[in-house]
Design goal:
The structure holds two protein chains of two kinds. Chain A is mainly alpha-helical. Chain A folds into three domains: 1-105, no CATH class; 112-231, no CATH class; 234-307. Chain A has 20 helices and no strands. Chain A is elongated. In chain A, 44% of the residues are buried. Chain B has a single domain (2-13, 21-110), classed as Alpha-Beta Plaits (2-Layer Sandwich), CATH 3.30.70. Chain B has helices spanning 20-35, 87-101, and strands at 2-8, 39-44, 52-56, 62-66, 78-83, 105-110. In chain B, the strands form two sheets. Chain B has a four-stranded antiparallel β-sheet with strand order 2-5-1-6, covered by helices on one side. A two-stranded antiparallel sheet of chain B has the order 3-4. Chain B is globular. Classes of the chains: A mainly alpha, B alpha+beta. The A-B interface holds A 7-8, 10-12, 14-15, 113, 143, 207-211, 213, 215-217, 220-221, 223-228, 231-232, 253-254, 257, 261, 277-278, 281 and B 1, 34-38, 40-41, 81, 83-86, 88-93, 95, 113-117.
């Protein structure tokens, strides 16, 4: 009996915790305090619901319980003490408790979307290090425990615990206003949020065979956060672009590694194992982004590129010309030699190896690509296609020397040997 | 984790459509699941008169039986596909759904996931 209720409470908490923290944070203007109050409410639920039953509106119950706790703390002067002790700055101690009390007692209409938005922007604030933003976001918005976050990032639990404590303290010390940014600031701050979400998503794909199940769960959580954000910011094309990119990347999860856990190149994947539901969700998100009819940003462009692959039933029906054009647009935004290399490969697929080789050769002087094994590897492929086997062999061998990965090195050496007839 | 939540009404197939109020509440729940980022798909089935059952007989022949089907307690009326962190969460969402339809049962089944490694 008790365990059934506990499971129910766990389910409710998964669904409601971010929203409860967000509502409280709007009132108390401090995410650390908001989380503590929410945790207090959870404890109250664990004590009372086994006897009273699960309330009809669990989120409202939890928020109300947290608010009551906050009011009690305020009346006993405890909250003020905490703020003084932790933050070390002078509150306008005449008015602050009164204002806070008034906010707590008001039956304000929740705009859940707005509350969540404030919470997301705050936990991804650029004043925090990227690691801190990631940990805080997974904690406050993902509802992941410190232990779960630690396992996902392969660090000790204490590391994550400290990271979160310091993050909350930094937000308070720097007096980070608890609000949704406006105007020009919004774009920059949104980029910071998207960066955190995409980082978490990619971290989940560093999973290899036998590793903790928390790692793929990271990608799922990032995708979920992206979807939540798309729901509250429907007018932002880059949000939909990132969601498209993640849905489409996730659609290939079953096809991207073989039984031995080794990665399979996209063009060699069994497309029958691509998740068509995620593909249609990704394409829908991309269409949504494009319908907003604004100059495309980097996530939208990357989403559009991966959509070209997703739409191709077989590799030879891939629209390489479109991919090349998209990489050109992306390159104009990011000015990255890696993007230009990808464009060169796409050009070679649509216009032939000679055209691609010309672009690859133009990248040879590029200092940042000097140790990038994919540059000689791409060059080698194109030379081989042009029948210039001796040169291709040299380039494959050069690429093999550059890569750290043993399997990749072996593949490249094998390619070199097969050019040996040159 | 992904869960398929299969709804079986359990009473005689109703040909009366849901009231606007019922539809609004269901729409809100589906919307809530979408806003929470957990809803992958949700669909309702047309009445079983539009359906068929396909079976391979022991003699090697196919038997196709057209609806309607009388054994209503086994009939599927709809499904949703959820992506959530725990089974407990899938069950909580399903409770909210069942509270709206009031009738029948929803079966919650975890799906195979792509191998992690």
């Amino acid at each position: 009996m008790v365990s059934e209720t506990h499971r129910a409470i766990q389910g409710v908490w998964s669904i409601e915790s971010a929203r409860v923290i967000a509502s409280l944070a709007r009132i108390v203007r401090d995410v650390g305090l908001a989380e503590e109050l929410a945790q207090d409410a959870l404890l109250a639920a664990l004590e009372q619901w086994p006897e009273q039953g699960i309330p009809d509106n669990p989120a409202a119950w939890l928020t109300a319980a947290a608010k009551h706790r906050a009011i009690n703390l305020l009346r006993r002067g405890k909250m003020l003490e905490r703020k003084h002790a932790e933050l070390g700055y002078d509150l306008d101690s005449q008015n602050e408790p009164e204002r806070l009390l008034a906010r707590l007692q008001a039956e304000l209409d929740d705009d859940v979307g707005d509350d969540l938005l404030r919470l997301i922007f705050t936990s991804c604030h650029p004043v925090l290090s990227t690691e801190a933003r990631v940990a805080l976001t997974l904690r406050l918005l993902g509802g992941l425990s410190t232990d779960e976050i630690a396992r996902a990032f392969l660090v000790p639990e204490s590391t994550i615990a400290q990271r979160i404590v310091r993050a909350k303290r930094t937000l308070a010390e720097k007096h980070v206003p608890y609000e949704v940014p406006r105007g020009e600031e919004l774009e920059a701050r949104l980029a910071s949020v998207l960066e955190v979400i995409y980082l978490i998503f990619n971290e989940g794909y560093s999973a290899t065979a036998g590793q903790d199940c928390m790692r793929p769960a990271l990608s799922e959580e990032a995708l979920r956060l992206g979807r939540v954000l798309a729901g509250i910011c429907p007018q932002e094309p880059e949000v939909h672009g990132l969601v498209a990119l993640m849905e489409l990347n996730a659609s290939r999860a079953a096809a991207r590694v073989n039984a031995a856990g080794e990665p399979i190149l996209l063009l060699e994947q069994d497309r029958g194992r691509w998740d068509q539901l995620l593909i249609s969700r990704g394409l829908a998100a991309l269409a949504h982004a494009e319908a907003l009819d604004q100059p495309p940003g980097p996530y939208l462009l990357q989403g559009a590129i991966t959509a070209c692959h997703a739409r191709a039933r077989t590799p030879d029906t891939t629209d390489w010309a479109r991919i090349a054009a998209l990489y050109e647009q992306l390159g104009a935004l990011l000015k990255s030699p890696v993007v230009e290399l990808n464009r060169a490969v796409a050009v070679s697929m649509s216009e032939g190896p000679a055209a691609g080789l010309a672009l690859v050769d133009a990248l040879l002087p590029e200092p940042t690509l000097r140790h990038y094994h994919l540059l000689p590897a791409a060059r080698a492929e194109l030379l081989e296609k042009l029948g210039r086997f001796a040169e291709a062999r040299t380039e494959f061998e050069r690429a093999a020397l550059m890569t750290q990965n043993a399997r990749q090195r072996e593949r490249l050496q094998q390619r070199a040997r097969s050019c040996g007839r040159g | 984790m992904r869960f398929l939540c299969i709804y079986k009404p359990g009473t005689t197939e109703s040909n009366t459509p849901p009231t606007p109020e019922e539809q609004a509440k269901m729409g809100k729940l589906i919307g809530d699941m979408a806003k929470a980022g957990v809803l992958l798909s949700a669909e309702g089935c047309l009445p079983s008169v539009f359906g068929s059952r396909v079976r391979l007989e022991p003699d090697g022949n196919f038997r196709v039986t057209d609806g309607p089907f009388p054994e209503t307690h086994e009939l599927i009326a709809g499904f949703c596909l959820l992506q959530v962190k725990t089974k407990a969460e899938a069950i909580e969402w399903t409770k909210r759904f069942v509270a709206l339809v009031k009738d029948g049962e929803s079966e919650v089944r975890q799906l195979h996931d792509a191998p992690a490694g």
